[in-house]
């Protein structure tokens, strides 16, 4: 296959991560041995999962099994997705939880259309930018921990909003498996154990720079002073009680009930401006996905801002102007065009992407003509020192979970959920069992910026689900978690499938790049970008000669060998004629694709 990447991960280049990456390193055993052989497909991948009656792909095998159990009990793909998401909040607390936000794209076979849901939360209605700046006491950005970066948790409301339209089973039934696991315990998975240990180190370090209340979080996850290790049984009875209350009491049990009083009282004690009214008034929005055709009948579909999904559509509109398949997938030429397309799209993200209730999105950014104009700015032989935003008539790190479920009726759910940086902002209300998100860190403090902090506003968001159509028909759910990696990850997977003929599993296992840098959605509009060129991080499967050529073209390239910053992928494709499902999951995570 044209897609063979010279020098697979087992024959890795010696990695020399930057100092900024040192915290992400974990001990590895050096092995002078290559990949084994396979009778079909690439040696560096494994077979996708194929089934017909239903399928789930999540970042934890137990969550995938829960989703299948819900499907077998008569639940819809939405019921199963909610059940899996609840389980991941318990089992993968380093990536998500009910203290965070949720986005989803749902294909409904009955109406033959895509539905998008924006389940992100807002800032306090009673706090102005001036009041926030007073609390920041001269800081030029919001901190990553404590009360100030918290926005209303949107996940629970999004669950009930989706369930009201597409659910079949009672919500109590959907949440019951996680309630049981939270009370009885489950063994920690290997990658999640690593992330828990990293989280404890990060919060301990941040307490020195930004003092905040962390005792409640310690009691839930780090009670003995250390992080639970792989294979260790973990219980969270507080979360069991919270989910049980939500299952029986509905959406209001979280946003307008006794638990709300506990959360608001606690947050106000920590210095937050949130009120009970802020919680009670929260609601999710049904939004319209937009699609951009790439080539050969493939269309990528994403949700509108405040998320960054449209950046992937902008990349598609740029890259459709060049035939990437004329070069090998691991070539400098193919990577150069994809990286420059990313940089062009993200320059617009940093300038224009924000809560559309406050700053309308310039629709011209998604036009094919605009894509051609931006493509014309790419020098085939040289990386541009800096790309500015276009003139039509935002990126940040984050820990996230993506999951997808397809049922036997053909309903397809693409769902992503996150607390943003790490496990969230470190704050846990007494007895609640979950951490509040720190998504508000992505607000800009420049009042002229579309993404500027305002009362009752949603910040710029990194988490994005995706969907792919083929010849106008629903074809594939797709997600690739991980901050600013997500749009560029979506496009890399699409390119792998369309231009290089990879199957779903190979498309996710193949070595990736993550370009980081350029202007950010949190920076002021005026003045130079802090890092205009940025750094091109690549995995060890990218050939040495490719890296040398990219450096000669002006790219700053670094190899990172632990997979952490390259996201977490899941996907399910459905054959529209036979209904056969093909699923793939991320080898960089603990996950599993399963079907029946």
UniProtKB/TrEMBL annotation:
Task: Give the range the annotation lists for the signal sequence.
Answer: 1-20
Post-translational modification, as annotated: Cleaved by autocatalysis into a large and a small subunit.
A Pfam family this chain is assigned to = G_glu_transpept
Keywords attached to this Swiss-Prot or TrEMBL record, sorted alphabetically, are:
Acyltransferase, Glutathione biosynthesis, Hydrolase, Signal, Transferase, Zymogen
Highest taxon of the lineage: Bacteria
Task: Please name the GO terms that the record assigns under molecular function.
Answer: leukotriene C4 gamma-glutamyl transferase activity
Quote the EC number: 2.3.2.2, 3.4.19.13
Q: In which pathway does it act?
A: Sulfur metabolism; glutathione metabolism
Q: Which reaction does it catalyse?
A: an S-substituted glutathione + H2O = an S-substituted L-cysteinylglycine + L-glutamate; an N-terminal (5-L-glutamyl)-[peptide] + an alpha-amino acid = 5-L-glutamyl amino acid + an N-terminal L-alpha-aminoacyl-[peptide]; glutathione + H2O = L-cysteinylglycine + L-glutamate
State the family named in the UniProt similarity comment for this chain. Belongs to the gamma-glutamyltransferase family.
Subunit structure, as described in the record: This enzyme consists of two polypeptide chains, which are synthesized in precursor form from a single polypeptide.
Q: What is this protein called?
A: Glutathione hydrolase proenzyme
């Amino acid at each position: 296959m044209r897609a063979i990447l010279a020098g697979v991960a087992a024959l890795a280049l010696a990695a020399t991560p930057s100092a900024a990456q040192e915290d992400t390193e974990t001990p590895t055993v050096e092995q002078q041995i290559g990949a084994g052989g396979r009778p079909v497909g690439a040696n560096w991948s494994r077979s996708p999962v194929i089934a017909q009656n239903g399928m789930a792909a999540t970042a934890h095998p137990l969550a995938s099994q829960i989703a299948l159990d819900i499907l077998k009990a008569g639940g819809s793909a939405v019921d199963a997705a909610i059940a899996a998401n609840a389980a991941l909040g318990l089992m993968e607390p380093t990536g998500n939880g009910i203290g965070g936000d949720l986005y989803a794209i749902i294909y409904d076979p009955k109406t033959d259309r895509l539905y998008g849901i924006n389940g992100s939360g807002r800032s306090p209605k009673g706090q102005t930018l001036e009041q926030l700046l007073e609390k920041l006491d001269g800081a030029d950005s919001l901190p990553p921990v404590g009360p100030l970066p918290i926005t209303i948790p949107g996940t629970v409301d999004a669950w009930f909003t989706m369930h009201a339209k597409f659910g079949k089973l009672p919500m109590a039934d959907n949440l019951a498996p996680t309630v049981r696991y939270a009370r009885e315990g489950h063994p920690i998975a290997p990658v999640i154990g690593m992330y828990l240990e990293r989280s404890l180190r990060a919060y301990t370090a941040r307490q020195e720079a930004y003092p905040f209340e962390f005792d409640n979080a310690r009691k839930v996850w780090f009670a003995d002073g250390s992080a639970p290790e792989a294979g260790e049984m973990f219980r969270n009875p507080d979360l069991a009680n919270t989910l049980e209350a939500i299952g029986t009491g509905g959406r209001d049990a979280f946003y307008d009930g006794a638990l709300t009083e506990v959360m608001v009282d606690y947050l106000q004690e920590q210095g937050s401006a949130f009120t009970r009214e802020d919680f009670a008034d929260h609601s999710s929005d049904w939004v319209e996905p937009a699609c951009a055709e790439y080539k050969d009948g493939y269309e990528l579909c994403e949700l509108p801002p405040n998320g960054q999904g449209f950046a992937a559509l902008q990349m598609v509109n740029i890259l459709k102007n060049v035939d990437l398949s004329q070069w090998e997938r691991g070539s400098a030429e193919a990577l150069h065009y994809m990286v420059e397309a990313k940089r062009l799209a993200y320059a617009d993200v940093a300038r224009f992407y924000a809560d559309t209730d406050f700053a309308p999105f310039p629709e011209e950014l998604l036009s094919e003509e605009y894509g051609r104009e931006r493509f014309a700015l790419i020098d085939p032989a040289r990386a541009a020192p800096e790309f500015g935003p276009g003139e039509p008539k935002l990126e940040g790190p984050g820990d996230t979970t993506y999951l997808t479920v397809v049922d036997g009726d053909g309903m397809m759910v693409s769902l992503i959920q996150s607390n943003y940086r790490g496990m969230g902002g470190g704050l846990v209300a007494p007895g609640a069992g979950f951490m509040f998100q720190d998504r508000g860190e992505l607000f800009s403090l420049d009042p002229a910026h579309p993404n500027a902090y305002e009362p009752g506003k949603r910040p710029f968001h990194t988490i994005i689900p995706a969907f792919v159509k083929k010849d106008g028909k629903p074809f594939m759910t797709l997600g690739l978690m991980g901050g600013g990696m997500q749009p560029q990850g979506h496009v890399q997977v699409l390119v792998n499938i369309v231009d290089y003929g990879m199957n779903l599993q190979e498309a996710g296992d193949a070595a990736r790049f993550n370009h980081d840098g350029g202007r950010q959605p949190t920076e002021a509009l005026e003045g130079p970008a802090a890092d205009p060129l940025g750094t091109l991080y690549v995995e060890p499967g990218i050939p040495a000669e490719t890296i040398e050529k990219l450096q000669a073209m002006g790219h700053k390239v670094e190899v990172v060998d632990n997979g952490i910053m390259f996201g977490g992928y899941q996907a399910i494709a459905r054959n529209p004629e036979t209904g056969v499902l093909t699923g793939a999951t991320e080898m960089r995570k603990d996950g599993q694709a399963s079907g029946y």
